[in-house]
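yo, Fumarylacetoacetate hydrolase is done. seq:
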Amino acid sequence: MTHLVRFAEPGHPAAIRVGVLDDEGEHLRALPVASMSELLSRPLTEIRALVAAAAGAPAVPAPGARLLPPLDGRMEVWAAGVTYRRSEEARREESADEDIYARVYHAQRPELFFKSAAWRVVTEGEPIVIRADSPNNVPEPELGLLLTSRGEIAGYLVVDDVSSRSIEGENPLYLPQAKIYQGSCAVSAGVRPAWEIDDPLKLDLSMRILRDGREVFSGRANTGEMNRKPAELVEYLLRDNAYPDGVVLSTGTSIVPGLDLGLAEADVVEIEIGEVGALRTPVVRGAGKLDQG
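structure:
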């Protein structure tokens, strides 16, 4: 699978490039842009032409290169909520105000919320954080859409919308505290180009939680179970809003552990979306642990 990536070449950690990781994952070829933001300022047709032309560019060995989150500049991550029946059921189980989740599931207007600025996003192998003041926290595996500054879907990626269900369950108005904090947003390092995915609503998703090397949760779903179309979510995201450097829109989750199972320190979360990619992250409790890594 071809992927768009940001990377630092071996021996040159400060030289950040944007490029293409080949099907075998063996070689990286840089694109003639200075940043992902610059790439996403181009029309989709131009982005596709640049990726095709990269096949003839000099290759850098992928082993030893550091893959970075595919966001920079003023890029943001936004997310949709309650887009699957399982999510609607889980939110009602967790909340003291369960009716609002049933209403938004059926409403014309979707739930959309700001999730993260680019600088706060983590990627493959980097820790995700569960809040120190929250006893029950979950990963939320989701299909992400990488949008150009014009709102065109340039690619698909894996997103983990880590959330405190204790805090959101206490009062839905606490949603920003449950969702937006250091280490709560992880994305795959690779973005699968949109033109290589035949149908984003026919993708298998899976998630495992490992504790002391043992699987304590596994779940599977398919994006075909979503009750919103990606284009519908994008249309609402763009209403009276601008994303001059591009944006990632996460489309909601359908794999939710039971209330008796939350994330714990040292867990490992593995997420895979067929045809898109994978994301594996360890878990730490409290954002202060990030500074110790």
